[in-house]
C-alpha cells in the first residue's frame, strides 16, 4: 500500500525513572511480562504490516532492543533498527533516518502504546483526503485506579486535567488547532484565517493525540529540512503544519492527474479540463474553497481520525500509566495480552510453584518458574519470571518484575518492584517504586517513596 | 410521468422482465449462465473472450499460490552488499552478524532462513543497512547536528507477496518458476479439468459452501508447496503454513480469481436471499443490509451506510492484492468524495492506468488473462463500494476488450504501454473530447436573452455555460437543486465566480419558475436505446414540467454513456442512497426532526439516486455525434458502439 512504518521506540524517559534504566530501555519495559514494544509489533503485524523501522535513541538501547526483536520476531517481521543519538527528539530521530524513507506516505507509531486501534484506519483516512498529515485522536483514557481504589496517593493529586486541546471542523475531518493542555495558561491564539475559512471550529479537550501519525513523506522531509530547530514531532512539527495549513510552504506534490505527459499542447488543455472535472465532482473542503478564493495560495490538509471509544488505548508515559496498563492488560483489555486465561481469570504459569494456603486472585499473572511461599495472597498483580516470594506476603495492585526476591511477611500495595530487586523481611510498601537490583532493608514501612541508588 | 407507465408495469410483471436481461433470472440459471452473470460486464458482446476463458483458468489453484517466501532471498544479498560499503559511512550502525547464533540459525532450508543465510554470508563482518550510501552522507550534511544513522536488519521475515513482487521483479519470477514446476507436473490438464468440474458440480448442488471451497484448496495447495519447497523445522513450517492460510482466509474471498468468479452480478436481485448471503460472504466491504426497505425496491442493494467506511478503513493494510490507487478510488466512492458519472469514470480509469503501470505478469501466466482477472477483482471491489454507473460499465468493457485484443506477440512493457495509452485515449477522446464537441454543438443553441435552466451539477452543461459566457452571449442561468446532495450549490459557486448571473432554487419551486425559462439543459448518467434518459433523481420531474410548459429540453450526454438496454421505469434498475442522508442534515445535529422515528418499523426511507425520463419529454439529445432526437439513440448505439468500445 506504499506505506512505510516507523516506530519511535524512544530510549530513556525521565517520567519513568526508577523503572527504566540503562539496562532496561523504555521499549523493553515489561507489561504483563512482555516488553511494551511487543504490543506495538503485534498490532502492526495483525494489520499485515511486516516491514518496520524501529528507531531507538542511544546505541546501547538500540543494541538491546534489536537483540530482543531479533529473538522474538524472527521469521515473522522484517524489522530494521536504527540507532540515533540521544536527546535529538522525535523530529531529530526522523531526520536521522530520513534517507531511508522512500514510500509516499510514512506511518509513524510511538513505541510505547498499548492499543487495539487498527492503524490502517489512519492510513486510509490519510489517503482518502490526500492529506499532508493525519493524526489519530482517541478518547482520553480514564487514568488512575478508579475502580480498584487501592493505590492512588501522589498520582491522584496530579492527574492531568486534559492533555491536548484540539480544534476540529464541523465534519470532524480536519485538524484546525492543536495545543498541549498544560501549555495553555490563560488565553491562546487561534489562527483567524483558518477559523474564517472553516467557518466553525469545535474545541475539544476530551480527545488525546495518540502519537500515531501518517505523514506525506515529501512534506515531512521538507519541514524537517527547513526547520532545523524542530525537535519534537508533536510539539513542533505538527502544530507548525496545522498552523500553516492555509499558507503552505511545503510543496504538496502536484495532483496525481498528470504523469502521462507525452502529448503536448492539446493534451495540456485536456488535462486542465480533466482535473477540473475531477475536482468539481467532489464537495470541496474549506482548503479548496480558500485556495480558489485567493490566487496562488497553496494549502495542505491536516486530517484527523477519531478512534472509536470502545477501543483500548494507553500510552506508557508515566508510572501511573504503567500501573494502569499492567492492570488493564490482564484485566479489562485482556484480548491484548495474547495469553489464554484460566477459569479464575488469571494466568499462572505451570512451572510456577505455589505454597499451601496461597491464593492468587483474578486478574493476576504469575510468570514462569516463580515461587510463592505459604499463606500468600496475590491480587490484581503481575509477577514476573523466576521471582521468589516468601511466606505470608501480600501483594495487591502491584507489578513485580523478573527475578525479584521478596522476603517473608512483606506487604506490597500499588508498587513496582523492578527486576533483581530484593525486599527483606516484613517490609511494607505502599505506592513505592523499587529500582532494579535495589535492596530494601528489613522491617521498613514506606509510603510513596522511590528507592533508587544515588 | 412515471404514473402513466406504472400501472402497466405493476399489472403485468412480464413488462418488468423486459427491462431485465434474460440472464438475470435467478432460478433457471445453469452453471454456464452463472458464469456469465458473475462477469461484472453484463453485455454479451464483451463476454466471449472473457467468460469463456476465465472458467478454465479459475480454479487452477496450483498456479495461483502466491509463492512469496522465496522472494526475500533475492533482495537481501543486494542489501547486504550495499551494506558492506555503507557501514563505513554510517557510524552508528552496528553488527548483528555475530549475535545471530540463535538456536535455529543452522537450518537454512526454509526460505526465510535461506535468505538470512545468504545475507549473513555476504556481509559477515560488517553491519547491514539499507542501501543508500551516497544519500547517507548527503543527508548527514543536510540534517543539522544530527548524524545520519544506518539501519540494522535485526529480523528478516518473509515479505508479503505484494511487496516482494514489487521489490524484486524478474529474478523472483525465474525463481518461482523453478518452484512451481513440480506442482505443474503433478496435475495434468485433464485432472485439473476434472477437479474443476467436480467443484462446479458441488457448487451447483450445494450453494451454501460455494464460497468456502476455494480457500480450502488454495490453502492446502499452499501447504503442499511449502512442504515440497523445504523440509525445514516443523515448528516454523507450521507457523508459516498457518500464516499463509490465515492470509488467504482474511481476505474474505481467497484470491483475486475466485473473487472475480464470484463477483456479484451488477444487477443482482437483492431480494433473492440465497444470493445475497453468498455475495456477502465474499465481500471485502462489510455490508449490513438496511432493515427497513421500501417494498418496491427490495431488489436493490441497500446497506447501513455508517458501518461500511470505518470497516473498510481498518482493513487498509490487510487487502494485499488491492492496488493502492484502486483502494483510494473505492474509498472515495464509498465516502462520496467523488460523485458524478464522468468524474467517477475518470477516477476509475486513472486508477486502472496505475494498475497497468505497476503490473508485472506472474510466472506461468498469460498477461491477457491475468490482467483481466485482476481488473475484474478490482471492479468487484468497486461495486462493493458503490454500484457501477452505466458509463463505468462501458469503460470497463472497453478496458477489458483492449486487454483481450492485445497481440500475444507483444512484450510485457509494450503491452503495458499500449494499454496505458489506450486508457488515456479513452479518457481524452470519449470523455473530455466528447464534452468539447458537445459544447461546440450546444453553444449554437444559446442565444442572447436566453434563460437557461439546469438541474444538479452536470459537467457537460457547466462547460457549455462557461463557454457561452466566454463567447459574450447574454443569458441567465437558473440552477435548480435538490436535497440531500445539493450539488447545484457547487455549480452555482463556480458560475458566479465567472460572472454569470444566476438564480438558485430548489426543485419544489420548479413549476413557478418554469414560466421564464427558454431552454432546459440537463445532464444524464446514461441514455438507453429506447431514448429513455437515466439521470440524477429529479431530472424526470424537471423534464416533464418543462415539456408541459412547452420549453425545449436538451440533454447533454457523451456517447460513451449510451447503452443498449431498454428500461421503462426507474424501479427495476436504480441505486439506493444512504437513507440517513434524507432524514438528517449532516453536520447539524440540532436539525433532526425525525429523531426517534428512524428505528420505527413502520417508517421506511427511500433515497433514490436515479430516475428514468421517458423520451417523450426530451426534445433533443446532444452527443459527440451531433444533436439527435431521442429516437436516434438506438442508431448511434448500433452503428457506433462497436467502433467505440470494441475497437
TrEMBL record, chain A:
It is found in: Cytoplasm, Cytosol. It holds the Pfam family NTP_transferase. One of its GO terms (molecular function) is translation initiation factor activity. Residues 350-431 form the EIF2B subunit epsilon/gamma LbH domain. It comes from the Eukaryota. Keywords: Cytoplasm, Initiation factor, Protein biosynthesis. SUPFAM superfamilies: Nucleotide-diphospho-sugar transferases. Belongs to the eIF-2B gamma/epsilon subunits family. Component of the translation initiation factor 2B (eIF2B) complex which is a heterodecamer of two sets of five different subunits: alpha, beta, gamma, delta and epsilon. Subunits alpha, beta and delta comprise a regulatory subcomplex and subunits epsilon and gamma comprise a catalytic subcomplex. Within the complex, the hexameric regulatory complex resides at the center, with the two heterodimeric catalytic subcomplexes bound on opposite sides. Acts as a component of the translation initiation factor 2B (eIF2B) complex, which catalyzes the exchange of GDP for GTP on the eukaryotic initiation factor 2 (eIF2) complex gamma subunit. Its guanine nucleotide exchange factor activity is repressed when bound to eIF2 complex phosphorylated on the alpha subunit, thereby limiting the amount of methionyl-initiator methionine tRNA available to the ribosome and consequently global translation is repressed. This is Translation initiation factor eIF2B subunit gamma.
From TrEMBL, chain B:
Belongs to the eIF-2B alpha/beta/delta subunits family. It comes from Camelina sativa (False flax). This is Translation initiation factor eIF2B subunit delta. Keywords: Cytoplasm, Initiation factor, Protein biosynthesis. InterPro entries: IF-2B-related, IF_2B-like_C, NagB/RpiA_transferase-like. It comes from the Eukaryota. Residues 1-125, 162-278 are annotated as: Disordered. Its main location: cytoplasm. Pfam families: IF-2B (PF01008). It is found in: Cytoplasm, Cytosol. Residues 1-15, 174-195, 248-276 have a biased composition (Basic and acidic residues). Component of the translation initiation factor 2B (eIF2B) complex which is a heterodecamer of two sets of five different subunits: alpha, beta, gamma, delta and epsilon. Subunits alpha, beta and delta comprise a regulatory subcomplex and subunits epsilon and gamma comprise a catalytic subcomplex. Within the complex, the hexameric regulatory complex resides at the center, with the two heterodimeric catalytic subcomplexes bound on opposite sides. The keyword Transcription regulation does not apply. Residues 22-56, 81-97, 196-233 have a biased composition (Low complexity).
